[in-house]
Amino acid sequence: MTSIRDVAKLAGVSPATVSRVMNNTANVDSVKRQRVEQAIKETGFKPNEVARSLYKKSSRIIGVIVPNIENPFFNELAGAIEEECDKKGYRLTLCNSNNDLEKEKRNMNLLSRMNADGIILMTNQKEIKEEVRKCQIPVIMLDRQVGTGSEIAYIQSDHYMGGRMAMEHLLDCGCRNIVQMSGPNRFSSARQRFQGYTDVCREREVTAVTLECEYDYEDGLKKAEELIERYPDTDGIIAANDMVAISVYKVLTKKGYRIPQDIQLIGFDNINLSRLFTPEITTIEQPIAQMGQEAVKVLTDYIEGREIRRQNVFPVRLIPRETTVEKPANK
Amino acid sequence: MTSIRDVAKLAGVSPATVSRVMNNTANVDSVKRQRVEQAIKETGFKPNEVARSLYKKSSRIIGVIVPNIENPFFNELAGAIEEECDKKGYRLTLCNSNNDLEKEKRNMNLLSRMNADGIILMTNQKEIKEEVRKCQIPVIMLDRQVGTGSEIAYIQSDHYMGGRMAMEHLLDCGCRNIVQMSGPNRFSSARQRFQGYTDVCREREVTAVTLECEYDYEDGLKKAEELIERYPDTDGIIAANDMVAISVYKVLTKKGYRIPQDIQLIGFDNINLSRLFTPEITTIEQPIAQMGQEAVKVLTDYIEGREIRRQNVFPVRLIPRETTVEKPANK
DNA sequence: CTGAAAGCGCTTACAG
DNA sequence: CTGAAAGCGCTTACAG
After folding, report:
1. Which of A298, A301, B215, B240 registers the highest number of CB atoms within 10 A of its CB?
2. Class of the B4-47 domain?
3. B66, B276, B296, B321: which to substitute to probe chain A, counting the most A Cβ within 10 Å?
4. Domain map of chain A by residue range?
């Protein structure tokens, strides 16, 4: 491994000068500059980032902690984050917390000990609040919020409106026996959507029927079975998210129900897959790409000492597709 | 940020002793040890990983470069890798190359400058060979191979057999007009599967019909349209992978074909989604979890100076499901 | 067992 | 414009 000293020796200058040439951090006599550039080329010298980062106390690394590395929603989010980081000259270290509080803490710890410049956290556990406070580097929350959000900045979509819109849409489609598969109550997103859903129930004077379900397809399969057994005359289902909608579709189809003729179905997220699935799934869109982008923007503003908005809520949107059918009469 | 000096001062010992206590790297008088432990607790001291890694020239970080961060196959692979890294006490930095050679090189560069201990590379471009040779840290290939594999160690599944099995299965299902959607020719996986497919064609004396298709659903949609237009009497399709199978299903269904009655369909990979899809997709399974695990095992053996096997090929397996129907007569 | 010293490979005041 | 020096925060020979 060739170091800055080797380059300096070869070029007949001091390491300081090599550094200045590399980083363009001061004027350097053009003859020496050329000698240095030549020496760099000859030796194939690549500056050691670790040494630089030790001195600078910054690594230009952003840590991203996702609850589940195999969940398409988080992958699409991570994709958007990665793209934006790249544009801004940051690197990304992706950590998987597996929905495990201990692992989340461990990851935050490691990240800050690695001189990461900031962390984008997608979590659920309110116990993390303490950890975030103790963390010496900027942390923001994405997709979920902890507490009121007045302390830790967050980016998320308008889950409350999403909950409302999903329910209103099914009502507009003529459904009378609607079951909401709520996300886990420990997630703010699920609580907010649930709130939206029940508010509509109250306004429209229909009884709220809910079944809690994890945001993944395994549990979706299980809860769909349970749902149809407990509520056999269901004619509309609000799935916890698109993956769960896919599970529901599978279970119902197996049991001989037709969608949307017998039971209408709406998801949440608008992951790419929801459009690719057959039939295409009606869903509530979260602006995933924008949210990821904004997360990086807010975090880098934070890192670089600029003012940031603490509460960033993005509007959601109904994407009517093939698993629901709007009644013209109801319009 | 409290440093090792602060702890040392508080405990009334030298920084060296603190280091020895933390790392359990030498015997320390038990009274001093206790004082140090106490001081660490009081100050909440967390050792700086960057400093440690500068001295040790190792960060216990493994870099993983995936061609597409949003592709479920790579995500499942990354999930398996992450789990195994975690067990072995390594951390993982996930990089997205976006199928871009320049970005791949840049990522390899950054990783080695960050003192990463090794790299798991999922790439395609043979031009990367040069870069791997120049890279000062261990690199292995996963899912794909470059060159003959005698130079760069690789882990992959038996694509050739997979190509054979897919074709043999469709023939056993009674298909007569089979089209193979081959993956991009620049990928070793695609070339090997194609070879398996054509070998079966030759043996069974049927004409090979192929259409090249990227490994993603966007192109799958496009190529499925093209396929059915060019070969309207197709009765069996070997999709490039499961995502493409999903695209094909969508396009054919839209056009009124029934699967498997009119056209049978087989995918590749056995990503989770293939089972969750309705109908469940017949596919060739790659042992994703095992491959990810083995990649970490081989890489860490390499890093830690143990002997490694350069060619690691995992067997594939036919998973018959609902998009194909085996003819009993043909058995 | 333990401390002072040197060193990992950079960067940046500081002097000149 | 440029070099010698100090320092980023650790770890580990080296001496004692």
Report:
1. B240
2. mainly alpha
3. B276
4. 4-47, 57-157+288-316, 159-286+318-330
The count of other CB atoms within 10 Å of the CB of residue B136 is 11
Separation between the CA of B16 and the C1’ of D14 (whole angstroms): 13
pTM of structure: 0.92
Structure tokens at A30: 């053009």
Q: What is the pLDDT of residues A239-296, one digit of tens each?
A: 999 999 999 999 999 999 999 999 999 999 999 999 999 999 999 999 999 999 999 9
Q: Render the burial of A174-199: b for 16+ CB within 10 Å, e for the rest.
A: ebebbbbbbbbeebbbbbbbbebbbe
CA distances from B279 to A133, A302, B11 (A): 48, 47, 67
- Indicate the residue of A69, A78, A114 with minimum beta-carbon distance to B79: A69
Determine the distance between A51 (CA) and D7 (C1') in angstroms. 12
Nearest to A210 by CA among A226, A221, A194: A194
The 10s digit of each residue's pLDDT in A180-235 is 999 999 899 999 999 999 999 999 999 999 999 999 999 999 999 999 999 999 99
Instruction: Pick B159-286+318-330's CATH classification: 3.30.930.10, 3.40.50.2300, 1.10.287.180, 3.50.90.10.
Output: 3.40.50.2300
d(CA B180, CA B234): 10
- For residues B47 and A113, the answer to whether their CB atoms sit within 8 Å is yes
Q: Which of B143, B135, B137 is nearest to B190 (CA)?
A: B143
Residue nearest to nucleotide D2 (CA to C1'): A17
